Structures are given as C-alpha cells and as structure tokens.
C-alpha cells in the first residue's frame, strides 16, 4: 500500500523545509549545552517547563539530564516543573494558572541556575510569569519557541525560535533541539573530564 497524500507526505516536506532553516541555529544549542555542563557540573540545576506537547518536550530534556542521553555518566539536577501534579494543581487552585510555574521557580531556582521554557506560541502567560520569576532570581532564562517575534523570546536572556509552519513541526524541531543540547552537554562534560 502506497501513502502519497498531501496530508501525510506534505508533513514531511514541511518538516524538511523547516529543518534546513533550523540547522543554522546549531550554534545556539551548542552554546546552551556547554553552558549547561558548566552550571550542572558545578552543582547548579536546570528547571524546565512547557504546556501540552511542550511539557512533554521539557520533561524529555530533564529525563536525558537526570538519566542519560547516549552514554553512561553521572546524573545531574534537572526538574520538569509541570511534572509535580500536586504542586501544579495546588498552585493553580490557590494562586491561579499564571503562577503555576513562577511559584515553583521562586521555590527551586537559585542564582546561576538555568530555566528552560518551551512554547510553540511563545505567548503562554504562565511561562511569561516563570521567565519574570527566573530573571528576578538571577537565573539564566532560555526560551525554545515557535516563530519570532513573540513575548517569551523577548522576555528571555536567549531564545531559539523555530520557524515552523505548524505547531507539529515546531514541536518536532524542539525535540531535535533538545537532543542537540544534550549532545553538546555530554561533549562538554567529556572534554572537562567528568
């Protein structure tokens, strides 16, 4: 059976076109991985958050850091803020949805730590509040978003904005970015002798 409908193969074409542009952002993922190795290798931590599919990507990133990406290595401190359902639901109930991540950033983030926020729209109010809380705490705030310009990229220390035509393509390239950061992270650790 042959599959050649625009809805199916068109998705591959869209991803391929976006990937070509995205490849030019490799220097950002390289820099993030190296910086993350310095922060986490020095005892700091990464906090990550997103909504929906972006939450899954954020949790994928923290799992790679606490577990491993490719080769065995020590675990590093990385927390997916949305994964603590008791905290997120209590905060949403008591303080409102916009505070779900910001309150956790204020609780867990320390000066010099990294906060990675993932959003296809770059406009989620709870992530914008988290970015504000991270900057106030002296954290380095990175945003992985969809097309620029967007409020989250503007409110972060550094952003990698994916120019995808659809949410699905942006999310797929966010996963590529997560793996690129992890590859750079592991390479930096290896070079540092950890």
Task: Characterize the structure shown.
- It is a single chain.
- The chain is an alpha/beta fold.
- The protein has helices spanning 6-22, 26-41, 53-66, 85-95, 102-108, 125-136, 151-154, 167-191; strands spanning 46-50, 78-80, 114-119, 140-145, 158-161.
- It has a 5-stranded parallel beta sheet with strand order 2-1-3-4-5.
- α1 crosses α8 (167-191), α2 crosses α8 (167-191) and α5 runs parallel beside α6.
- The longest helix has 25 residues, at 167-191.
- Keywords: Isomerase.
- InterPro entries: GmhA/DiaA (IPR035461), SIS_dom (IPR001347), SIS_dom_sf (IPR046348), SIS_GmhA/DiaA_subfam (IPR050099).
Secondary-structure map with pairings?
Elements: H1 6-22, H2 26-41, E1 46-50, H3 53-66, E2 78-80, H4 85-95, H5 102-108, E3 114-119, H6 125-136, E4 140-145, H7 151-154, E5 158-161, H8 167-191
Parallel strand pairs: 1-2, 1-3, 3-4, 4-5
Helix pairs in contact: 1-8, 2-8, 3-8, 5-6
InterPro entries: GmhA/DiaA (IPR035461), SIS_dom (IPR001347), SIS_dom_sf (IPR046348), SIS_GmhA/DiaA_subfam (IPR050099)
Keywords: Isomerase
GO biological process, one term: carbohydrate derivative metabolic process
What key phrases describe this protein's structure?
Phosphoheptose isomerase; 5 strands; 5-stranded parallel sheet; 194 residues; globular; carbohydrate derivative binding; alpha/beta
If strands are numbered along the chain, what order do they take across the biggest sheet? Answer: 2-1-3-4-5
What's the gyration radius in Å?
A: 17 Å
Shape: globular
Please report the total strand number as a whole number.
5
Helix content bin: 40-55%
The class by helix and strand makeup works out as alpha/beta
Oligomer: single chain
The span between the termini is 50 Å
**Count, helices:** 8
Q: Show unreliable segments.
A: none
Sheet with the most strands, sense and barrel status: 5 strands, parallel
Chain-averaged pLDDT? 95
The arrangement of helices and strands along the chain is HHEHEHHEHEHEH
**β content, as a range?**
5-15%
């Amino acid at each position: 059976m042959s599959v050649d409908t625009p809805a199916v193969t068109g998705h591959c074409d869209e991803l391929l076109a976006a990937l070509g542009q995205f490849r030019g952002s490799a220097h950002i993922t390289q820099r993030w991985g190296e910086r993350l190795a310095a922060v986490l290798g020095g005892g700091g931590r990464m906090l990550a958050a997103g909504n929906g599919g972006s939450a899954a990507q954020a949790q994928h990133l923290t799992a790679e850091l606490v577990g491993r990406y490719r080769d065995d290595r020590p675990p590093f401190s990385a927390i997916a803020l949305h994964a603590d359902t008791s905290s997120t639901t209590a905060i949403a109930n008591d303080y409102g949805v916009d505070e779900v991540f910001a309150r956790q950033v204020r609780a867990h983030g320390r000066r010099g730590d990294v906060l990675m926020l993932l959003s296809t729209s770059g406009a989620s109010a709870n992530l914008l509040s988290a970015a504000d809380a991270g900057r106030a705490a002296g954290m380095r705030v990175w945003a992985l978003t969809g097309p620029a310009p967007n409020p989250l990229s503007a409110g972060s220390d550094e952003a990698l904005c994916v120019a995808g035509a659809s949410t699905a393509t942006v999310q797929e390239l966010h996963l590529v970015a997560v793996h690129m950061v992890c590859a750079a992270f592991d390479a930096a650790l290896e070079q540092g002798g950890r």
